[in-house]
Amino acid sequence: RAALEEVEGDVAELELKLDKLVKLCIAMIDTGKAFCVANKQFMNGIRDLAQYSSNDAVVETSLTKFSDSLQEMINFHTILFDQTQRSIKAQLQNFVKEDLRKFKDAKKQFEKVSEEKENALVKNAQVQRNKQHEVEEATNILTATRKCFRHIALDYVLQINVLQSKRRSEILKSMLSFMYAHLAFFHQGYDLFSELGPYMKDLGAQLDRLVVDAAKEKREMEQKHSTIQQKDFSSDDSKLEYNVDAANGIVMEGYLFKRASNAFKTWNRRWFSIQNNQLVYQKKFKDNPTVVVEDLRLCTVKHCEDIERRFCFEVVSPTKSCMLQADSEKLRQAWIKAVQTSIATAYREKGDESEKLDKKSSPSTGSLDSGNESKEKLLKGESALQRVQCIPGNASCCDCGLADPRWASINLGITLCIECSGIHRSLGVHFSKVRSLTLDTWEPELLKLMCELGNDVINRVYEANVEKMGIKKPQPGQRQEKEAYIRAKYVERKFVDKYSISLSPPEQQKKFVSKSSEEKRLMIAVNSDEARRESLFCPDELDSLFSYFDTSSKLRSIRSNDSGIQQSSDDGRESLPSTVSANSLYEPEGERQDSSMFLDSKHLNPGLQLYRASYEKNLPKMAEALAHGADVNWANSEENKATPLIQAVLGGSLVTCEFLLQNGANVNQRDVQGRGPLHHATVLGHTGQVCLFLKRGANQHATDEEGKDPLSIAVEAANADIVTLLRLARMNEEMRESEGLYGQPGDETYQDIFRDFSQMASNNPEKLNRFQQDSQKF
């Protein structure tokens, strides 16, 4: 019975395992069928795409062939799942339901007869010896029960042995069938794709050629695009043509303003055309044309100079007149001439059909000559790749010399090939910040920074001793050599000339020459009352939110006094007089001390060189100082602990500030007066720098030692642009905090306005000129 109990427990566990396996098989089959359905839908999508590409034989043929192959694979999958259902689900389920059920029935009979035997034994033991009749009856019952028990026990043991033997064969048989189904599936797939392999290989070779051709065509198109952008065009009507004998019957077409015949005399822009001796117009291209003049032979055309709108002309017919307005004088003349020519042609066509045939054989095409009217020229825009590669040395990779680099390190100001760019990324952003010249969006100040430096400038610093040390630059394709060279060049700075920071002239070794307080002051003559009225957000703040679009604002009428403020419009710098000391705007003369402690007998302290070069707007010298280990946040203890970034603000160069920020400068580091770069830019009225610092995360809530934040300084200075930027940034910050959008850039209006300011600061700084108050009053 102990052995039986052990077997019964084993069979019970076997039943659980088999039930679980059958359920998992059912789930797998259902999932597989769902996969086949989704795969079939995907394949149908490929067929639809093939039908759509019927005009491209290569695409249509390839997609059709691939969809047929995928359909075959779907069929193979279906067969696999059917065989799985028969081998696993059906066989094992049958084993559980039939054989295990017989075992359970035999067990029940065994247990029942066992109980009857126990009862017979009990009755036989209870019979008294003096009752002979009962003794015989109990003995006979016990004998019969024992005989029955032995037969049932023997049957039960037989059923156990049969189950044990069949269990092994049934499980292995079902699993072997399942594995054979997989073997057939993968053989079928292998055979299918073996046949498809040569075609796929040919298609891959064809794709390689297509990629090469596409790259070649792209370069040609970029060259054409660049050539076209470099040309000067007059207005878009310079190539206007009309053809009285056009094949489609349209002599001339284009947009005109039409005055309505209603009481309001409104003007609407409509698409007009002269065709089939009629003048018609459409509100939309899909609309049916509305005929203005049924027959041009019955109408006349004339100039209209007696109304306020310019470039107007009138088409008069016997029943009505139509007042029209062109976009320019040249367009007006063209339309008048086209109508007159069409009228004459209509008369000739009605008079003599043969003349019309002769006319078709030699059509007369009139082209407008360029007039004397002044036109706005098209903007000469260039892509980031074109602009950066024009810089000396940038046409090849800075580190390996591979031609046509498409990547750049924005904090170093160099161009890189794709392999070198990957190595630069591995150095970390504190050494090199990599960006694509073709895939990424470039901010204007960042693009100008790349154009200020370049491979030649940086290599003169970082490769100064390469030839002396006898080291050869790695060639394209040498990955390990490149990685070692780049790490030695930028991380270890092994090739930098340690004594390349030359002495400045004696007069520059000393502190900047101090000026009297009158010479330090900068005065701008403006009407302060009117300026303040235009700078504040009253009564409607939204009106002045976009005040920078108003180029006629009185705040833009700025003139400098005799101190000679310099405004550089070619590079976006708002510079102070070169004779004024960087910090003389804020320090009393008595506080200025000698800085000779930062000089030694050989060269300047790198931090001091970076400090001075930032004010002088000398990016190559700044890059050289950083290469020599200058701390980008070095503070000059002799000049109020001003940083290079503050010096860049005082120097007035937007690009210099961007260079320092890209190299890790702290935009919120303040001097001893509690003023950070944003404070100084606000005081000096450098709108472009204020915009840049706000984009880079400057804290506009910080106050100086007088308790003034940048906004209060801008409001007191009545600088409308800076007030706009600061209030807009603050409003955007509050909105993001209230909505829980931490780390988000802000809404589209905020981004668009800051993008416009950045474009103006980098490309049209004269639009951001603002008067500069005497800083000492702050």
UniProtKB/TrEMBL annotation:
Notes concerning its domains: PH domain binds phospholipids including phosphatidic acid, phosphatidylinositol 3-phosphate, phosphatidylinositol 3,5-bisphosphate (PIP2) and phosphatidylinositol 3,4,5-trisphosphate (PIP3). May mediate protein binding to PIP2 or PIP3 containing membranes. The BAR domain mediates homodimerization, it can neither bind membrane nor impart curvature, but instead requires the neighboring PH domain to achieve these functions.
Activity regulation information from UniProt: GAP activity stimulated by phosphatidylinositol 4,5-bisphosphate (PIP2) and phosphatidic acid.
Name of the featured protein: Arf-GAP with coiled-coil, ANK repeat and PH domain-containing protein
Organism: Nomascus leucogenys (Northern white-cheeked gibbon)
Coiled coil stretches, renumbered: 100-130, 200-231
Domain Arf-GAP: start-end pairs: 382-503
SUPFAM superfamilies in alphabetical order: Ankyrin repeat (SSF48403), ArfGap/RecO-like zinc finger (SSF57863), BAR/IMD domain-like (SSF103657), PH domain-like (SSF50729)
Domain PH: 249-344
Pfam families hit by this protein: Ank_2, ArfGap, BAR_3, PH
GO terms under cellular component: endosome membrane; plasma membrane
Stretches with biased composition (Polar residues): 362-371, 559-569
CDD domains to which the protein is assigned, alphabetical: ArfGap_ACAP2, BAR_ACAP2, PH_ACAP
ANK repeats: 640-672, 673-705
Topology of the protein relative to the lipid bilayer: Peripheral membrane protein
